[in-house]
Amino acid sequence: MNAPRKPTREIQIGGVAIGGGRPLAVQSMCATATTDIGATLAQLRQLQRAGADIIRLAVDNKKDALALAELRAQCDAALSADLQENYRLAKMLAPHVDKIRYNPGHLYHHEKSKPWRDKVAELADIAARHDCALRVGVNAGSVDPAKLAARGANDDSVAPMVESAVEHSDHLESIGFTRFCVSLKDSDPRKVIDACRRFAEARPHVPQHLGVTEAGMPPEGVEKTRIAFEQLLSRGIGDTVRVSLTVPNEEKHLEISAARDIIKDIAAGRVRSVVRFNENSLNLISCPSCSRVENRAFVELAQQVRERTRHAEQHALTIAVMGCRVNGPGETDDADLGLWCGPNYVNLKKRGEKIGAFKYDQILDALDAELRAMIAAGETG
Q: What is the pLDDT of residue 1?
């Protein structure tokens, strides 16, 4: 790249090194059920052929953790486990992966009386004993509740994310664990840029994983991510990247090719000069298809929502389509209209308040009725 890279600390993730001036590592995530060994192996190999440096797998329960042993035996990729609500699963999965990603905001879901610092120390000890790296994955939709409470009426939604990332970085280093990177993700590329720049100023030595979460479907999802990457990578910020797209399983490789294309364009100086993305028009966000999706109809539904809402393209509203119970409830709260997709029903929310649960063949009509009512009432912007 033409821009000098920030001199972050180098860490090893299996056979891949990030930071320390190493080439940018490109990541993706399997969308298959982790327990479906055949389908997951096929997707792992698809992503490897596409050029993925690191591949992430979702681990939500003991069955997922047990499946990792078989997947590791048949795949030599650098594997990252996405540990969400149950941090105690780390001891089961650590022998079979190269990195464990935990979310600070999800450490409160189990053993609520146990201090988060003790939980992180346990994670670090497990990672060290099994030759694993860690990623501190801060997401806008699931920020540390203590940080949100402390913010009060402050409208700076980025500050709690950065504070959480800094706090966890400092704690890990204080207990002697330095093999970690940090990510700060939002569905708004402007907030991603802001958060990552602030963190880079506060802790310039810590490697950063870049991404726009719930970027949505291509081409919009690619463009949102491009905006964030251009503004960050061109400033030397970022050591590994992921383009998160809502696509069918057989098209997950598009995350890799999109990331590679963006990196090439930035290196060649083909960049944009603005960081805004359709501020005065309809904004659709949707989570990347991953193994936590509880009904594969979610991907098709996201595409149908785009078509059904084209009449509202000139209205400044945000519609979120989320595919799982882990991130769905929290990450639809900030949208004007949110669809949280379960196995059989889609929960429809308006600005954080639940309207109702609808069958998949009913939700589009319900969404359109709410959308038209908001437009008619002037509830835009």
A: 44
